[in-house]
Amino acid sequence: MSRDKYAKQSLGSVHARIKQSRVLMVGAGGIGCELLKNLVLTGFGEIHVVDLDTIDLSNLNRQFLFRNEHIKKSKALVAKESAQRFNPNVKVEAYHDNIKDPRFNAAWFKSFDIVFNALDNLEARRHVNKMCIAADVPLIESGTTGFNGQVQVIRKGITPCYDCEPKNPPKSFPVCTIRSTPSQPIHCIVWARSYLFTEIFGTSEDDAPEMDQSESPENAAEIEKLRQEAKALQRIRESMGSAEFPRLVFNKVFKEDIERLRSMEDMWKTRRAPVPLDFDELSEAALGVGDTIVHKDQVVWTLAENFAVFLHSLKRLSDRLEEIRANSHAEMGNAPPILTFDKDDVDTLDFVAASANLRSHIFGIESRSKFDIKQMAGNIIPAIATTNAMTASLCVLEASKVLRDDISNTKSIFLTQLADRVISSGPHGLPNPNCPVCSAAQTTLVVDPSRATLNDLVEGLLRVELGYGEEFSIQSEAGILYDPEEDQNLPKTFGELGLKEDTFITVIDEADDNTKVNLVLSISEKPLDKDAKPIQLPEKPKIGTKAKEAPQIERDGEPPVTNGHGHGKKRGAAEADLLDAEVAKKRGKVAAAPDDDIVILDDAEEGAIVLD
Ligand SMILES: Nc1ncnc2c1ncn2[C@@H]1O[C@H](COP(=O)(O)OP(=O)(O)OP(=O)(O)O)[C@@H](O)[C@H]1O
Ligand SMILES: [Zn+2]
Fold first, then answer.
1. Any idea what the CATH number is for the domain that residue 419 is in?
2. Based on the domain organization, do 493 and 520 belong to the same domain?
3. Cα–Cα distance between 34 and 83 in angstroms, integer?
């Protein structure tokens, strides 16, 4: 019996296309392992796998292509080795690399029939989306968070792309809530991790993405005060290692800062005022607390127990940092050593858990167990192997429609546990005509990197040849290259600006009327004849104008479910609840769609039953 017999029977006529197809899978983690197994067993002819990471012990429970002996090895290479054995007729290529590496350029993307995203972060997803739009290759985008999952087919000009709907930025809390008026355990946990821990052992809180530092006239004075408090804490940090250090830190953050807050009476008219803690009183109460308390991670510690763990962990972390400092003395000129919070590093977790609970006590907020705090501080949502497996199988189902050239029948599919049906789907909708990525005009820009300047582009090409007015800006991946107020780069050459082969730059028209859609220029380097212009367009692009008002398009409102929101961060528990509610809402909407029913088609020719 031939190996493909059942695949042929269930897939019907598309089986042959699948066999000849060349596909790319980006990410070999939770979804990726399931997906690669499906692709290999379905018989996709040539599969390329890219993943930048190595295998971690914590991956093994669900990433079943990996075993204990593979820990620390490349995910892409091991996934290839393991999956290849399922079907020797399939060719698998693996790359242990970041998909953003320039070698994976638009021409390389173009060589695939379909691209599958099995990623965990917004940045990489957006990059692959952009490359697939530039290369005009269909993309199957997928993501899971706990029991929720989503699959979306993206095809330039036909479906919305990943960036057609702006994505929610990662959840952040106003700095004043975290530093002055916490009201939930998560506020105290963010304070302990992103303020206290980083001010004592790391770099400044200014870098914490979950703290929204934006100032307004109402909070400017308070923010300035908070800055001064942080500076005072940094001065205390200098006495690390001394016998007085724990008392100094404690008194600063759990007593003096609280007394200052308490004195701001207006703040506490409608809230319970915080009550400072006393070091000596707690020292006495903590005398009987044994060392084993840190192992009781499922019980909520008492105030005295939290105090004891605070002191122990502060000592362990201070000793560690002192030791690193002593050893790194020789390498002068290096940045001073720091510690970073890691949910799996027990010393950092103990410190954050105890500090968060001490603060909760001050503000009359319920304490949490170390186990709970680990979930919240690490933004962990348990990955569910079944959700990944279901999502991966739906990716293949949608891919089969793409290979049948049946994009119009592809669906946006949602998995959710809250609804009466686990899987629901809806039509894919239409591209957003003002989307900065897929509505953009695209063309290649040939430049002589040593001669072509940004001014040649701005004046010679954009204004003279393409009719741009005064108001427009140019952006590269690294940020703004030019706008009317920032023209210092104009005399620089493309070489000096680091704009190499295969990088993209985007021209954003800011004219009030007849605003042009974004123009994406893909750079191609070529030494050009001395007499020729140093910058040329081999093909003049057709640049449409933006729609004045966004038309009412039937499009799925919420952003796709992802198991990471920007910055490679996982979603917090509070966000997960929100997401569940969003998905439930969507589920209600989608379920009402008449074409949501299961259709059984009898494919007479091949004897196959197709479930859509
Ligand atoms: N820019 C990128 N280039 C290549 N691979 C990437 C890139 N960004 C993320 N990935 C990979 O995508 C995969 C996503 O898988 P998954 O969501 O299961 O995460 P994980 O890191 O394996 O698990 P967890 O984060 O839950 O411990 C990871 O293997 C990760 O290395
Ligand atoms: Zn788009």
1. 3.40.50.720
2. yes
3. 10
Burial class (CB in 10 A: 0-12, 13-18, 19+), 153: buried
- How far is the C-alpha of 570 from the C-alpha of 145, rounded, in Å? 9
| Measured distance CA(461)–CA(543) in Å, rounded | 14
Cα(417)–Cα(309) distance, integer angstroms: 38
Distance CA 159, CA 555 (A): 10
The token duo for 607 is 């004897």
125 and 119 Cβ atoms separated by less than 8 Å? yes
Place of tokens 């009317």: 484
CA distance 108 to 159: 22
Alpha-carbon distance 400 to 389, whole Å? 17
Please give the distance, rounded to the nearest whole angstrom, from the Cα atom of residue 347 to the centre of ligand 2. Answer: 45
On whether both 58 and 146 belong to a single domain, the answer is: yes
The gap between the terminal CA atoms of the chain, to the nearest Å, is 28
- Indicate the top mutation candidate among 54, 70, 120 to test ligand 1's pocket, ranked by most ligand atoms within 8 A of CB: 120
Q: Which residues are catalytic?
A: 176
CB within 8 Å of 503: residues ≥ 6 apart: 102, 476, 477, 522, 523
Ligand 1, residues at Cβ distance < 6 Å: 26-30, 32, 50-53, 58-59, 75, 98-100, 119-121, 124, 383, 563
Q: Classify the complex by whether its ipTM is higher than 0.95, answering yes or no.
A: yes
Q: Is residue 177 part of a domain?
A: no
Residue 237 burial (10 A CB sphere; 0-12, 13-18, 19+):
middle
For ligand 1, the distance from its centroid to the CA atom of residue 121, given in whole angstroms, is 8
d(CA 439, CA 231): 47
CATH of the domain at 483: 3.10.290.20
Helix extents (H) in 370-521: 370-377, 385-403, 454-455
Q: What is the mean pLDDT of each run of 10 residues along the chain (612 residues)?
A: 80 93 98 98 97 91 96 97 95 97 94 97 94 96 95 96 85 83 94 92 67 67 80 87 94 95 89 96 92 90 96 95 81 74 92 97 96 87 92 97 94 89 92 92 92 94 93 90 92 91 92 92 90 90 79 38 35 36 37 33 35 34
* Structural domain for 529, as ranges: 441-536
